[in-house]
Structures
1.
Amino acid sequence: MTYPSIARVNDFWLEGFNHNASDQEYAEHIELCAPHIPYLVRASRQLTGRMVRYLVDQGVRQFIDLGSGIPTRRHVHEVAQERDAECTVVYVDFDPSVVADARDVLAGNDRVAYLAADIRDPESIFGAPERARLIDLSKPVGLLAIETLLYVSDSDNPAALIRSFVDRLAPGSYLGMTHCSENAELRSGLEIFSRMFGEPPDVALRGREEFEGFFAGLDIVEPGVVPVTLWNPLTEEDVGRNAHLAHMFAGMGRKS
Ligand SMILES: C[S@@+](CC[C@H](N)C(=O)[O-])C[C@H]1O[C@@H](n2cnc3c(N)ncnc32)[C@H](O)[C@@H]1O
């Protein structure tokens, strides 16, 4: 595969092994225009670990991860199964090259499945045999969408989409999300990219209010909607140096 994929670009920033020269070049172009993006990607992966550990501590043992990318570098199943080997995970992504790599990575782990599906079609996920094998919908689920809705445009009504996932889950389930925020720095990064390299990544930046709206009907857990580095940090490394500059919101809601 020679075309750049955002999942493999992330893998480059996370110092993984599942990217190629075109992903690296694309990553370097993005970095040139928006130098803080790799920091946000790393902060987001650390946040995923904190959310998963939190959920396992709340008794959640099954996870659905939307827009998963490459499942390495301390992704959901690694953290969850380290806490409790019984945890099951269904990853979902629609990029065929990512799915192929991901299935290689997960070979032999029969408590994890990687679905090739479009999250804009929830039925294709809930109706999948692998979902039925691994996720019991009568029990709480940890639903995660980490830097995923950024790629779902307003015309696809992401709030209704998230609601349709949550509606299918049992009480006691959780929704954990991050989202790059609407801000001048990222906007100008996209503009610089389009001037230097052509079409920029097609992303939908969203403000706090819109992000909070994705949790409608859920009880937001502490500490609420905050910059990604400030969601229950455990170490200095989690917080980073300039938490207030982390233009990415994180939040989690519980279905009662
Ligand atoms: C920025 S990456 C985030 C990956 C991962 N959640 C993480 O935290 O590293 C976004 C991923 O969402 C996937 N994606 C975007 N739109 C999607 C859709 N409609 N259905 C399924 N996957 C999608 C992309 O292929 C990509 O792998």
2.
Amino acid sequence: MVEGAKNNGADVKYIDLYTYDFKGCMSCFACHLKKNSENPLCFWKDDLKEVLQLCIESDAIVIGTPIYYGSISSSAQAFLERLLFAADTYVLDEDGNRVSKIKKEIKTAMIYTMNVTKEMDYFNGEDQLTIMRGYLTAIFGECESLYVYDTKQFKKYDLYLNNMFDPELKEQSKEVQFPKDCKKAYGLGERLAMSNK
Ligand SMILES: Cc1cc2nc3c(=O)[nH]c(=O)nc-3n(C[C@H](O)[C@H](O)[C@H](O)COP(=O)(O)O)c2cc1C
């Protein structure tokens, strides 16, 4: 995704949330005070503040997250709580839509990577992952989703406690499916960069 965007002229900042020390929304409600109605930036002062500032100044935000126990990672969840709540309001417009503090469109996308194949019983369906997509669309702008299934989790499966995943099938998926998924991610970066030209 980063390459696709960069190769089409976008200035991309890749951020690894695991290197930042931050928490999810603490319900301080400073962002929802009437006097802060114009400020879409979370008021909590920790490492995430500079990341959130960059996000609201950008033309597009892409969030990549592994699926952990059927949901987005806790870091992605904490980040999204802070990003979304400060830009969101409990004010409805005449059509009944929530009023966002973001006044320009910031395109968004979610990339989900997961171990399971689409067919496995453990997978509860893409629907369970669409909730953040809805909020991102309402508060920032159109949100695309990219689902990457059947990722190869371990380099050497024989070192780990496992009889659920067939190492040979995982290797095949890495060789055949993963390049296709990377191509889709490249295309996503390309589209986002082009749409902001
Ligand atoms: C704590 C934990 C929970 C996981 N839960 C799921 C799950 O519910 N469904 C799934 O498909 N994969 C699950 N996985 C596997 C990851 O989603 C998968 O390996 C993903 O591709 C991680 O990408 P990464 O290893 O490149 O960070 C889990 C992995 C960990 C570490």
